[in-house]
Specification:
This protein has helices spanning 14-23, 31-38, 44-52, 64-71, 75-103, 135-144, 149-157, 179-203, 216-228, 254-262; strands at residues 2-8, 27-30, 57-58, 61-62, 108-112, 127-132, 171-174, 232-235, 241-246, 265-267, 272-274, 282-283. The protein has 284 residues and is of the alpha/beta class. The chain has a 5-stranded parallel sheet with strand order 2-5-1-6-7, sandwiched between helices. A hairpin with a 7-residue loop joins strand 11 (272-274) and strand 12 (282-283).
Length: 284
Amino acid sequence: MLLISLTGGIGTGKSTAASLLRQRGAHILELDEVARTILDPGTSATWEVGELWPQVVRDGVVDRTALAGIVFNDREALAKLNAITHPRTWQAAERLLERWSAEDRDGVAVIEIAILADSPRRYGSHLNVVLGADTDVRIARLASRGLDAEGAQARIANQRPQSDLVELADAWLDNSGTLNDLASQISALWEDRLAPYARNLVRGVRLTGATRPAERAECERCRERLAHHGVRAAHGADSGELIAVDGPDGPNGASNEAALAAAGFVPGEGCFEVADPAYRLRIR
């Protein structure tokens, strides 16, 4: 199953984009919603939070507003909270993704994630789709949710600048315009890239795709994905080539094939090639 990470700063419209992708047939996993369940009453995570900050847990229930007030401007406190919640969140998410994959092998699953750049799983999906928007547009959207301009600017300033997300983006969607503008971009992305990518993966061969060689940044993201799945690769002499250096069982080990597939590669002639139809990239 094709796995997409959908990210972007606050006010860029991730939920709207996810809704449009759902209309196309994608399975949508809202990571924040999964994370919320981790601190439900009676969970081990709630007990650990109570041990660290007893003032935010009463009768086994986390006062989420009070907890947010503690960690918002305290990086050390936030790191402690993340150490409790993040592993459990991803375990729950993976169980759901495994179920979807078993039921819909040729489908598309989208993980809506707010903070991908700082996640150890930033290259864990086949493709990263990043949303951006002009600052004034983001502030206006946050104002419609009840935040004043000062509060909106503080939330935006507390996140990474949009420029830091460019290197993560396999696809960048500018959501500074209307809903119709975004819908057109989503439609083109689905038809030209996501649907054929999913078909290539499930067939295990690159039947559809462009012939242009991968650009350096595209090669680098693929190299990062391979590393995430345990395969070390170096840039080849060709711009459209990577060389496998090592992996779970060495460069040609059997388990490498599974790792390559997880990173988005399918068998080609004497090599593996990326199933992404946007460009051509081989790994030998």
